[in-house]
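Question (not urgent): is this output format expected?
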Amino acid sequence: MRGFRRVGFLAAAAAVAAILSSGCANSLVSGTIERRMKEKLPELLGPADSYELEVSGGTVPMTRGRIDELVIRGRGVQVMPDFQVDELIVRITDLVAASDGAIKSVGGVTFEALATQARLNDYLVRSKQKEMTIELLEDRLLVNARPRLLGIPASVRVTGPLLPDGAKLNLKIESLEVIGVGVPSIAADFVEWKVNPVVDMATTGFAPHLRAVEISPQGIRIRGAANIAAALEGSDSR
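Got this back:
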């Protein structure tokens, strides 16, 4: 009888080891977490054309709900009612989940967003700044505007880099061309007041702190920290 129990125990242990080594445990844990996360993403990050999730971590820690990194890739994400980014990547590290996939705690949360020139100009139109258009240069933003200054129609071209300021991106004017007005400083003040912040992400679901921005003809790429840890940890307790 003891020999039978010993054989049964060894068989069960071998089966568990086989499951762990085959990656089945990882798939079960990651699949549960991915399903729970996908349900939250439209509320946390915004509606999107698509979301893809990738979970990574060691086999044994993952069976205990410990995830090294969860990467979320969104396409066409509506981060604000008037602003859609072409791509949004969110990286969550040191995530701990319950057996049902509920998030218990997270470590760091960072993000990277890409917005093309077309998206930015669409944002200007939607936010009622129709007299302005944006052109993306290498490391610079070019703003074309046709304001009325002192009642006089003017054509203004402004270039400069974008600087992070909390959840905002502001244009720093480095060069200015004005046609129709002999007081460029007035035009500069107007454009700076009108266009800034170029992007304000404070009202997004992940309330980011922007750290860096890169500008190229392909788009602006924004990097920073995302404040969704509290929302993730508290969403399953409500």
